[in-house]
Specification:
By secondary structure, the chain is mostly helical. It is built from two helices and no strands.
């Protein structure tokens, strides 16, 4: 059976014994860092749009 060895909390036991996956990429950002990054990207887009419009 699947849950034969771990009876009380089988899902927790399975997660603890499972091998670590190396394919999970997670970036943990605070709200301030996310807003700052969004602002930088937005301003860079405005600047690039201005430069493209200027060269036309």
């Amino acid at each position: 059976m699947r849950y034969q060895n771990a009876r009380k909390y089988p899902i927790t036991q399975m997660k603890r014994n499972a091998p670590k996956r190396q394919s999970d990429n997670v970036i943990d950002l605070s709200i301030g860092a996310a807003v700052g990054l969004l602002g930088i990207v937005f301003l860079e887009g405005l600047f690039c749009g201005y430069m493209i419009r200027k060269w036309r």
